[in-house]
Design goal:
mainly alpha, Leucine-rich Repeat Variant, kinase activity, ARM-like, ULK4, kinase
């Protein structure tokens, strides 16, 4: 059973970082973009010390989900220092709502990215998603949140390798990912 994702909503007033429109982000000069990205990385990389900080982080992840559907922004975010921070948050965030929103953001980035840099740790994200699905295999709600992201990353790697003559070692897909995916398809 595939769950339809609910529309993402965020509150501009609670954000400590300006929530620019997609058009504004696309037209930013490199200096302004790097400043914005650095602030985003600092905020997302910080631990949630209280529920207010967790809510603020969750709110900003919702904002990023709304701008990640634009191809140019998705390319810039996916190929930036933000992607490793998203992987870290997927691994260490104490709040599962944050992990689920991070997974959704990674999936949206993978879906809308058209140019993947060779240094983007996509294989690490795939391994982590595989581990999380395996550890929480009986939790169907969690699987429904993590499986689409795993599928989008696998598709992104396949389409990038198809564009190039030689496959890149940095995009090696562990066999465990296919095993977990097949088990999910078989057992639901």
């Amino acid at each position: 059973q595939i769950m339809k994702q609910v529309p993402v909503r965020f509150d501009l007033k609670t954000s400590h970082i300006p929530a620019y429109s997609a058009e504004k982000l696309s037209s930013m000069k490199d200096v302004d973009w790097n400043d914005f990205l650095q602030r985003v990385c600092l905020m997302l990389g910080s631990p949630e010390k209280n529920t207010g900080a967790a809510r603020s982080k969750l709110n900003f992840l919702c904002y990023l989900c709304t701008v990640a559907v634009h191809k140019e922004i998705a390319n810039r975010l996916m190929n930036s220092q933000l992607f490793p921070i998203l992987i870290q948050q997927l691994r260490v965030a104490a709040n599962w709502d944050i992990r689920v929103k991070v997974a959704r953001l990674i999936g949206l980035l993978a879906l809308h990215t058209s140019e993947l840099g060779e240094n983007v740790p996509v294989s690490e994200a795939i391994m982590l998603l595989t581990e999380l699905i395996r550890e929480n295999f009986r939790n169907s709600k969690l699987k429904q949140c993590l499986l689409p992201t795993l599928g989008e990353l696998l598709y992104l790697i396949a389409s990038e390798e198809e564009k190039r003559e030689h496959p890149r070692e940095c995009w090696v897909v562990p066999s465990a990912a296919y095993t977990v995916l097949m088990r999910c398809l078989r057992e639901g």
